[in-house]
Amino acid sequence: LFFENTYSPLSSNEIITKEKNNMDQSRFNHCVRVSETARKLAKLNHYDENKAALTGFIHDYAKQVPADEFRKVIKEQKMDHDLLNWGPAIWHGMVGAYFVQRDLKIIDTEILNAIKRHTTADVEMTLLDKIVFMADYIEPGRTFAGVEEAQEVTCNNLDSGVAYQLAHTLEFLIKKRDKIYPRTLDAYNVWSTK
Ligand code: GDP
Ligand code: FE
Ligand code: FE
Ligand code: FE
């Protein structure tokens, strides 16, 4: 068992089963590694290790939800319609938190916000937001060029890790001529100097 669940009426095993049934094995393994990395970053930064491990484990709960299901929820839940201009890369966090609340019965706003922000970051981030954002980026299964530097920077200073990830993600998206979600850009402008 990776965490003790005190945030939902479901048992830890029920959460693990629901998570497993909502994604393929390799995504599940990523979530386990993010959970372990989040626990480590929590310890380094004096945050509740159990809460970090749980949030890391469920951060990508909605990663493989079909696009049509996201669109339906955005409309039915009357979320910002601008979301419809984006895709699953943005939705699985911003809208994914809704699925976590609905299916995993988690109502803790700190956990739900960390899931909402885990892809785009934000201008203001709690310690849990930063831990999950960085654990996702540096978990030991990541293989991108520069990952070792990212791990080192993040373990030395969590805020510098956030700045590092935002700068490198923007470079990566621009090289692909991908659209930048405005919140990602706003976050970069705030965090780039930290
Ligand atoms: P994962 O879910 O574990 O694969 O990781 P993330 O949730 O951090 O990222 C999902 C994808 O979203 C990655 O490919 C990022 O490069 C991409 N992404 C992050 N920010 C933005 C953005 O502003 N715009 C777009 N289009 N994609 C982004
Ligand atoms: Fe994700
Ligand atoms: Fe991320
Ligand atoms: Fe992830």
Short characterization:
By secondary structure, this protein is mainly alpha-helical. It has helices at 12-21, 25-44, 49-58, 67-76, 88-94, 96-104, 109-117, 127-138, 147-156, 158-175, 182-191. The chain has one domain (12-191): Orthogonal Bundle (Hypothetical protein af1432).
Total number of distinct structural domains:
1
In which range does the helix fraction lie?
55-70%
Tally of contiguous helical segments: 11
CATH topology: Hypothetical protein af1432
Bound molecules: guanosine-5'-diphosphate, fe (iii) ion
Query: Could you state the order of secondary-structure elements as H and E?
Result: HHHHHHHHHHH
Binned strand content: under 5%
How many beta-strand elements?
Answer: 0
CATH class equals Mainly Alpha
Structural class of the secondary elements? mainly alpha
* CA-CA gap between termini: 36 Å
List keywords for this structure.
binds fe (iii) ion, mainly alpha, binds guanosine-5'-diphosphate, Hypothetical protein af1432, globular, 194 residues
Description:
- This protein has 194 residues and is an all-alpha fold.
- It has a single domain (12-191), classed as Hypothetical protein af1432, CATH 1.10.3210.
- 64% of the residues lie in helices and 0% in strands.
- The chain is built from eleven helices and no strands.
- The chain has helices spanning 12-21, 25-44, 49-58, 67-76, 88-94, 96-104, 109-117, 127-138, 147-156, 158-175, 182-191.
- The longest helix has 20 residues, at 25-44.
- The protein is globular, with a radius of gyration of 16 Å.
- It starts with 11 loop residues before the first helix and ends with a helix.
- One fe (iii) ion is lined by residues 60, 63, 92-93, 118-119, 136.
- One fe (iii) ion (FE) is lined by residues 60, 63, 92-93, 118-119, 136.
